[in-house]
Amino acid sequence: MKNIELEKALLGCILQDPSQMNVVKSWVPSHDFFYSDFNQRVWLALVKLDKTNEDIDLNTVADAINVVDTDYSPLYEITGFVDLVISPKKSEGYAKLLHSDWLRRKLDKQIHVLSKTIHDDSKETQVILEDAHTTIGNIINLQPAKKFDMISLLGKTMDSIFNATTLINTGIAPLDKVVTGMTRGEITIIAGRPGSCKTSVSANIARNLVHQGKKVVMFNREMPNTEMMKKFMAMECSDINYSNLRSNIGLKNESIARASNIISELYDGMLYMFDDIRDMEGTFREIKSINPDVVIDDHIGLIEHDPKDRRDLRHKIGDVTRGYKWLAKAQNMSVILVSQMNRNVEHRNDRVPRLSDLAESGNLEQDAEIVVFTHYPWVSRYGDDGNSECYLQLIVAKNRYGNTNLCEVGYYGNSCLVTNSEGEAVSKANSAGSGIKGTPF
User: What is the pTM of this model?
Assistant: First the structure.
């Protein structure tokens, strides 16, 4: 509970960069924060100079230190403090660590006092309990309060209003018209049954974001990165058939080279894909390292948890969504979580998804601002409802800031493209000379 060298490093940060005084003030409530008597006197000297707006440097601090021993050289001692500094910007980190040590010392001292009280038969048990509660409460209150800056918040809000800095469009016009884009710091759920194009929809959003200049991270838990890349190649090059890519049939080297060049030019440094990260710890570590605008996790039901965690899956999913919620705010990014649906939808005649069909629906529905279902009638109704295989529905079942609605879009499977209308998808199919048969998912 004492770290004299860390105390010296903290004071050295301030001596090297006096602006760090404002950074660490809230973490140092009193001079006894420092365990060393000399370090306490250095801090008091810094506080004195700061209050009187005097320059803080080695000489002024050495002169302001109250030295009892006249043969002692404070200048020589504090010069060594500066030598311990790696970077002045580490001052707050040092202060937080020392603050924890200081609280432990306070707690240790109070526990000894309480221990003596417990054995004092003249005091009632209720009084002892109240004293213990008060003591612990006082120690908890010694932690610095989080600062709130109204002016800064107003500035960010005005920027959000006039410059739409918090909104990120999906690039699918009918969907953006309903949800007005995704919001930084919040979660969007894309869910559907197998074969309902949910992965293709998320891949199209990733592509659109990259074309907008946004940085995207994708966690491909269902398929390898190479298979996801085939989708992007098909989307970027109109004469590449996705099913041919998968089967390695009828491919032209020049088409593959053209698609590769486009992806190299546009996607490098903008799209990051991982297919071998199993847990949340590794997932969050990569996100913090890359600092993207949008994260797409496909899909969260495959995230692995501690084998010792015997809780029900819905509680584990709840941990995932809450973790993503806080990380989205901390990183100022938007999160898209791709999820499966339960089989309830298959027992209804219309087979149109509902919120109750979400796998582990309680947590997903609660933590998400937007929930979008992908409904592909060609698959769910086996093409018997009169709709073509180029017709896809995006059902906005939850929208915290607006209306819910059904968005009718197009889907051209041979290119894995989600278009703004069915007609546009049909046109792409006809221009490719492939008609609308044999659509892969």
Answer: 0.68
